[in-house]
Amino acid sequence: MVNITEKIEQIQQELARTQKNKATEYHIGLLKGKLARYRQQLLEPGPGGSSSAGQGFEVAKSGHARVALIGFPSVGKSSLLSKVTKTKSEVAQYAFTTLTSVPGVLEYEGAEIQVLDLPGIIQGASEGKGRGRQVVSTARTADLILMVLDATKPDSQRAILERELEAVGIRLNKERPNVTFKLKQTGGIKVTFAQPPQKLDEKMIASILRDYRIMNADVLVRDPEVTVEDFIDVINEQHRSYIPCLYCYNKIDAVSLEETDRLARQPHSTVVSVSESLGLQDLIERIWEDLKLVRVYTKPKGSKPDLEEPVILRLKRSTVEDFCNTIHRDFKDKFKFAMVWGTSVKHSPQKCGLGHAIEDEDVVSLFTRG
Ligand SMILES: Nc1nc2c(ncn2[C@@H]2O[C@H](COP(=O)(O)OP(=O)(O)OP(=O)(O)O)[C@@H](O)[C@H]2O)c(=O)[nH]1
Ligand SMILES: [K+]
Ligand SMILES: [Mg+2]
Q1: Nearest-CA residue for atom 32 of ligand 1
Q2: Does domain 293-368 fall into CATH 3.10.20.30?
Q3: Confidence (pTM)
Q4: ∠341-342-346 over CA atoms, to 5°?
Q5: Digit-coded pLDDT (tens) for 179-198
Q6: What ligand has the least distance to the C-alpha of 146?
Q7: Which domain of life is it from (predicted)?
Q8: Distance separating alpha carbons of residues 43 and 349, to the nearest angstrom
Q9: Which residues of the chain have pLDDT under 70?
Q10: 342 alpha carbon – ligand 2 mean position (Å)
Q11: Which CATH number fits domain 65-89+99-173+244-290: 3.30.420.40, 3.40.50.300, 3.40.718.10, 3.90.930.1?
């Protein structure tokens, strides 16, 4: 019997030799669906195996957000951690100096950001080369992936790392596709397009679902730009993580000004020299921005707002209710209304309910019963 790795190999070869055109479109879509299915099987631990591919690496989450340093060996991940946090992680010229995850804390704008130094990864990491498996599954737990790259090395390095993360279901700087997918007991496959699809059709969706042995489901495609790959991601949702990524090119002290400039202009990219302390402040600001944290200042009734110690929330969860929950559970139960000053309201202050979304640097006063 052929094993999964061989099946994957066969599909990849078939994909490579199949010409892309109208006639082969469905076949290619189906092959991609199969590929995703086998890859997933490969990642699942066998019977009796460990339940977590990240074993031995777990570090408790702490602070308001987690940033994972991902990169090839010797690009300067540990040097960076040692520079921007109080933690010292071993630095050396040879590859694989770091063998486990080393957490540090970056304090910025009142927030504590956990930065995880990790072993270097290489091509094949997602299939278990080196500590690759553990590293990529730790990356999955991050709120932001900081991909550390060596500015003196070719651009292909970045593509290799991206592929390794892709292979385990991590999607970088991408929103979850705008598709609603509901499994059902009966009724067959029902596909609805909110707008005429550009890259997908009903037949394609139906044949991929059949290949996944899904016979009954409701599919609502809201975005006309959704691709076959996106749709396959939606069916495999529980194994997909959509994580922001910032590309950090280190060692710019060793390349020309022109090259530094070129790298700095790439999307989601920033350039630094850790050893020369160049660009670090900018890097920290970019990390802060990409984490989308929100500072909320509390204002006790009748006194000035406390501008020293903001309450930190994630932008995705920054309603008045989230704010209440962060301060103390009781606040939500006794809540009457909130007075809010800042960019989230039309007039400052404004009386708001629990559902109001707070923005960065708003000031909030809570009014409670009893
Ligand atoms: N020229 C230059 N060298 C640097 C810079 N930052 C780090 N290095 C050097 O790069 C080498 C590797 O640094 P590390 O911090 O150990 O790299 P790493 O990515 O943690 O490596 P592994 O743990 O082995 O994956 C060391 O010799 C550092 O001194 C920099 O900004 N410029
Ligand atoms: K090293
Ligand atoms: Mg290291």
Answers
A1: 251
A2: yes
A3: 0.87
A4: 90
A5: 999 999 999 999 999 999 99
A6: 1
A7: Eukaryota
A8: 52
A9: 1, 44-56
A10: 46
A11: 3.40.50.300
